[in-house]
Amino acid sequence: MTVTRGRSASGTGSTLHVSRSAERVLSLLETVVVGGAVGLTEAASETGIPVSTALRHLRVLTGRGYLVRDDLGRYSVGPSFVRIALAAFQSGPYARLTAAAQPALHRLAEVTEESAYLAVRDGSEAVYIATVESRRAIRHVGWVGKSVPIEGTAVGEALATAASRPGQAPVPFFNTGAIEPDVTAVVASVHGMRGVVGAISVLGPAERMVGDRLDFTAEAVVDAAAKTSLALSPR
Amino acid sequence: MTVTRGRSASGTGSTLHVSRSAERVLSLLETVVVGGAVGLTEAASETGIPVSTALRHLRVLTGRGYLVRDDLGRYSVGPSFVRIALAAFQSGPYARLTAAAQPALHRLAEVTEESAYLAVRDGSEAVYIATVESRRAIRHVGWVGKSVPIEGTAVGEALATAASRPGQAPVPFFNTGAIEPDVTAVVASVHGMRGVVGAISVLGPAERMVGDRLDFTAEAVVDAAAKTSLALSPR
DNA sequence: AAGGACATTTCAGTATATGAAACATAGTGG
DNA sequence: CCACTATGTTTCATATACTGAAATGTCCTT
Lengths: 235, 235
Known about the structure:
Chain A is α+β, with helices and mostly antiparallel strands. Chain A has 7 helices and 8 strands; from the N terminus they run αααββααβββαβββα. The interface between A and B is large, with 58 and 58 residues.
């Protein structure tokens, strides 16, 4: 009857102690935040953490106000997390970038009549952190907070490119259907004091973005990126 | 300064095992996110965690991309955290609230010519989660993400008040100088399906908000709150 | 060169997190 | 009505994974 559960933890007797519970708490937080209202069992299975352990961790998070439980016992984002999240935009390193890009994004969305996005790099991915939407009925929406691979995308190219010389006009990057079919992206890099710090994209339906229209869009994107770079580090 | 002195659950030889490292990692995350660029020693002393331990935890956070280190070794918000933060606004329980309040906040800021805010409750505090700023030169700004006590503030009263009957007109709450001298607040509760879910405030310089102007503002705030409640749970 | 401030590594001890299993509590359907 | 499943909660013996003082390394200042 003594069910000797496999020894596990074999392999290299690693001497590196990297907080396991910390990792797990963060996994759970992430799972709940992106997943909306999730129950204990779901959160546990999603993260691969035993339920009893997951429960304990979730309690830490709710205790801090990072998560809240609804009347069905499911977990959702709590007010404390929202507070932190908001603070991240005000004091974080992206505050300046976002503020600097805002006017350019507005003008870009206006003149191109497509949705304009601002993206930053996150390891091997790119994350869209701000947008100004097109006002047309058919438009690209909802990619703020979304992350896409660096590899094989136009944003990725723009973010991975080596910093060009200051004053040198940026190059536009193009792609169609890398993430979603029928979506065309036109992107240019934003340069800070130390290399590429972000990218400005225009995303729209592929059938609309062709010929002269595409050329015009590319010009506008390059211009917006240049203006943003200038706003970041005026000389 | 709001360093929650860890310890917790002392006294009786508690058999409750509440993840210590988890608590600490979250403290550190919070400290860095609100504090901007902080060094190891600073983060450690701020949270009361020994430096070597703090370093280990901060490594977990940077490893996950929640934090990044600048070239001076200081920690700041990372792209992964920004991604999560953005997701919190899209899928979180406050997404509906914020969306429902947006038009009302705009109109409110326009007609009162003062900054309009949306706040939710966080334990014994209130957190401002959205704003539309006044367009006047002297205006109230920068309170998004800020938290104030429930006790002794107008927002607090509005959030702590018992749910009024549906259809019943909300009551305005007033306060001057509770948090900052010379700032007057006019607030009304937003009602959801189960009680008070938020509050709408107008904040402005005390000397401007008097007499007829104040009455008018109160009316506008009450109206905005009612409209938001209606948008949340139409009948 | 000496000193200070800060980041990093080491290491032994044990506090502390872990997870299987038992228990509790709905909700479901036959 | 009761068995049955799904989900949340508590317990507790175990050793793992975390802790933190001190030593070391690195950079900057005087």
